[in-house]
Amino acid sequence: MKKLRAAICILIALAMVLVFCACDKKEKEPQEPGTTVTDTPKTAAPDTSSAPGTAAPEESTAPESQPPAGEDMVLKQNLIITSMSDFEASPHEIQPGTVLKWLAKADVPSQLPWNCGPESWFWTNVFEGLSYLYLNDPKDIRGAIAESWEHSDDYLTWTYKIRDGVKFTDGTVCDAFALARSYDYRLEASPATFGTYNITSWEALDANTLVFHLSAPCPYFEIGISGIGVVSPDALDLYGINDNKAAIGTGPYYIDSYTSGVSIELKANPDYYLPDRKPSIERVSYQIVKDANTAIMALMNGDLDGGLISTVENYYNIEESGFDGYLISTYDVASVFWFNAKSVPVFQTFEVRNAMSRFIDWPGVNELIYDGMGNVQDGMWPEGTSGYVPFDENYYAPDEGLELLASAGVDPKSIEFNATIVDFYKDVFVSIQNELSKVDVTMNVESIEAAANFTLLMNGEWTVSIGGFGYTNAAPYAPWTFILTPNAMCKMCWQDVYDPELYQSMLDEYDAVKTAATWDEMIQHLKQLTKYQQDDFGCVGAVQAPLFIALSKEFKSGVFVSEDHAIQVCYMYK
Fewest CB within 10 A of the end CB: N or C in the chain? Predict the structure, then answer.
């Protein structure tokens, strides 16, 4: 086996701040971007009908994986279901004594859904919004706390009808009045949350009617409001917005206990109200194991029932050790290679940016670093996701690149810059460094701590970078907030430096995104914005790093959101 050093994407670190904001080693048939699974099946996803207040679902545009014949695993809208037949057969009732021991990504010091992004992997099991995306499909939004909703003709007033009988897990009533109070606390804790969706105010007209007022239409309002986890206002009255004792929601599970550095324990909510999300596993033990080798041993001897495996080496180790369970290969977050035309003036020349894309052999990087198990993107965003635009101009052709430089009168030996990156991505950058050296372009690589790197990004002092800035299938608009505008938190688009007219066109599209009335209208503007950036070679597609999920076959219907790799425990059973 090749000696591999897998890299963890820098965007995992960035997402902590910004959110608030395939083949295996043996020869196999090539598959579409998505997932593979060892010894486990795929059927078409079930038909879904729209809930009151929602648009009828449309055909998924997400890539469907093609597991070997006879398998039942599904990848739909970036949701992984280990077995569709198991998913459909879920008992949706608590199975006494059942325990899922899951490898936690990290410690969970902040358990309220606004304090810190890294804990979001368990939030969806504890906190809910007014609605939820069925099977992670942005076109199939279904009622949760709200049973239906409607909007005014101008999309500025949204009225939600709240279900009777919903309670927080502290026993207090979750009606429209409680929701309004909870949102008041959310505004205090995270003011930016509501501004993102153009929300100016909300009010409870009665116990079953909650109204939102917007300053302008927001095409992703339904999705956005569904993702705002509601917290018990009575608990917040008692403990405040920074105390974990107030982390009480209406979800299928509640937090039973937490020991820093050891585990966070969830218990099934016996009074949960949605039939298709009623929990079956009685207790979930998220066990915090920071050492990768220790985690692998725990998986092998049954001390852990499942978890994420973040390196190709560890994937092979567990595979070769005879792990008798699901071993799923999927991908990390979107990966994009950016050029900073402000820090490196030579990048202001179109032919230079174009030539740089010709000098980097991304399939070769994938083979060298990830043993071919990553996904080589042909565009900014992964194929099949909402804002994806295919781009066939990103390919390896060094001779053509040299011709482009010559046409612009640029000597490759004159191109020299420093790449300051986090150590997680050092192997990828060293590989790129070697590619560029073949054509006499010099990229010096220096690795630093993630926090220092983020400071460079915020200050615009970086030269080249890799990352997708929180891009998800359900939120294709999100990264542009952080990368495009003149005062963006981590500006990545530098057309204002060398092509102000193009930059203004991009800002116009961004404004159109924010004011579009519908999802489909917004997507068209997003695709044009993506096209502007790609055609300008302001960035090029890179390689999504592989990630892997292990799960004991004692557990049925493993369901994962592949974009953040959060397990949806409510669908699982034994």
Answer: N
Q: CB under 8 Å to 554, separation ≥6 — which residues? A: 305, 574
Q: CB–CB of 174/145 below 8 Å? A: yes
Nearest Cα residue to 454 out of 5, 15, 108: 15
155 forms bridges with which residues in the sheet? none
* Residue 171 CB partners (closer than 8 Å, separation 6+): none
| Domains, the chain, ordered by start | 31-330+547-571 (3.40.190.10), 336-544 (3.10.105.10)
DSSP state of 547: E
Beta bridge mates, 422: 448
Question: Of 249, 47, 49, nearest to 142 (Cα)?
Answer: 49
> DSSP of 100-116, one letter per residue?
EEEEESS--S--STTT-
> What CA–CA distance (Å, rounded) separates 128 from 249?
7
- Per DSSP, 173 falls in state B
C-alpha to C-alpha distance for 307 and 552, rounded to whole angstroms:
10
Which pLDDT tens digits describe the chain residue by residue (574 residues)? 333 333 333 333 333 333 323 333 333 333 333 344 443 322 222 232 333 333 333 333 333 333 333 357 776 657 889 999 999 999 999 999 999 999 997 888 989 999 766 677 888 899 999 999 988 888 899 999 999 999 999 999 999 999 999 999 999 999 999 999 999 999 999 988 887 889 999 999 999 999 999 999 999 999 999 989 999 999 999 999 999 999 999 999 999 999 999 999 999 999 999 999 999 999 999 999 988 889 989 998 899 999 998 889 999 989 888 888 999 988 888 899 999 999 999 999 999 999 999 999 999 999 999 999 999 999 999 888 889 999 999 899 999 999 999 999 999 999 999 998 887 788 999 999 999 999 999 999 998 877 777 788 888 889 999 988 878 888 899 899 899 999 999 999 999 999 999 999 999 999 999 889 899 999 999 999 999 999 999 999 999 999 899 999 999 999 998 777 789 999 999 9
- Please name the amino acid found at residue 22: A
Q: Is 217:155 a contact under the CB 8 Å cutoff?
A: yes
